[in-house]
Every structure is written in structure tokens, then in C-alpha cells.
Amino acid sequence: MKRSTQNLLIALAAGSLAFSTLTGCTDHSRPNVELIQDMMESPAIKPQEYDENSPNHSGMRLPPEGTQPYGFTPYKYAKDIDGATGNKNPLAGDYSEDTLKVGIKFYVTNCAVCHGEQGQGGEKLSVGSKMALKPPSLWSPKVRAWTDGQIYHVITMGQGLMGPYASHIPQQYRWQVVNYVRTLQKENK
Ligand code: HEC
Q1: What lines the ligand 1 site, CB under 6 Å?
Q2: What distance in Å separates the CA atoms of residue 181 and residue 162, rounded to the nearest whole number?
Q3: Side-chain half-sphere of 9: how many Cα atoms within 13 Å?
Q4: In angstroms, what is the span from residue 129 Cα to ligand 1's centroid?
Q5: What is the tens place of the pLDDT at every residue in 119-143?
């Protein structure tokens, strides 16, 4: 190897060692030195950040009026229990295995801790027994006499001490839960 090439290689090796020591490249527990600005720190505004140009200085903007998020299903039913009385159950009378399977899944996950596996009410249940107002039985003459629309409404909006379950049970599965509650009522005459 020529002397000049040898010198060049030595210089390169020394240079890369100095570079990695300087920038911390050898210590992977520390962040690197930022040689080119804006590569690690993007100038884009993140959702929770302060934005001096936004009207309320929030990085997040309100969507334009009248727009809907992709996949959003508007709620087409009345928003009060009386108005909900007439809401028609599109699955009325459907107690097929497929329908009840969905109903059971959501009922057991969301409702049973308070109303019981059988819908008997929450006197002796871990969560129900701790509530100031014990979760009522779903077989009561009152709920039996309710329309399907009213049960659907309470699942969506809650009632008094019971919170809404709209974010837990998507709209397309709530009528199946209603039908499962009806099944529990029939089984526990
Ligand atoms: C955290 C406990 C809790 C959970 C979970 C819960 N409920 Fe309730 N539920 C209550 C309480 C308490 C009441 C009575 C509220 C009131 O009237 O102030 C109630 C009331 C009701 C009523 C009206 C009964 C009546 O006699 O007025 C229905 C129907 C009902 N719940 C169904 C459900 C269904 C279906 C689910 C599951 C999606 C569910 N609940 C989940 C606690 C709960």
C-alpha cells in the first residue's frame, strides 16, 4: 500500500473515532447531537401544542361546521326517554343464535357487573352492592312494560346514577343487547 493511501486511512479512522465520541454515537443510551437542525425536531405543530397563529392558541382546530368524522354514524333516535318510547327495534322478535351471541357478549362485558349475569339486580354484586342506589332488576314489571326503544335509550344515554354506554357498545350492536335483556326477562318469569 502506498504511504499516501495509508496516511489517508489512518486519518479517516481517527476522524470517525473523534466524530462518534463527539456526537455520542458510541453511547446508545444518550440522544445524538443534532447536526442538521429540524431533522429530529419537526416544525409541524402537534395536537396538544401551543400555536401562536391559531385563534385560541391551541394546536388542535375545530373541524369545519357540518363535517363528520369518517365512519361516524349519526344518532337518529330521540334523545329523551319519552321520545324514545316509539323507537322501532329493527331486530324485534329476532332471538336467533347470531343475534343473542352479540347481545350476550356486550351484556356480560358491560352490564353484568351491576345488573347481574341474569339481570336480577345488583344487591349482592361486587360493583352494584357499593352503589348508593342499587342497580335495579331488569325483570321488574317496570322494565318488562317498557318498549325496546326505552331500553335502547338507557343503554345509549344512561339514566340517573347509571352512566351512558354509547362509547362501549356501538349503535349497530345495541338492539342485540335489548333482545338479550328480553331473553333474560322471559327466562326469569
Ligand atoms: C355501574 C353500574 C351499572 C352498569 C354497568 C349498568 N347499569 Fe343499568 N342501571 C344502574 C343503576 C344504578 C340504575 C338505576 C339508575 C337510576 O334510575 O338512577 C340503572 C338503570 C337501568 C335501567 C332502567 C331500570 C329502571 O328500573 O329504571 C335499565 C334498563 C338498565 N339500567 C340497563 C342496563 C344495561 C342494558 C346495561 C349494560 C349496557 C347497564 N344497565 C349497565 C347501574 C348500572
Answers
A1: 110-111, 113-115, 127, 131, 133, 135-136, 138, 140, 142-143, 151, 154-155, 159-162, 165, 169, 177, 181
A2: 16
A3: 6
A4: 13
A5: 999 878 878 888 889 999 999 999 9
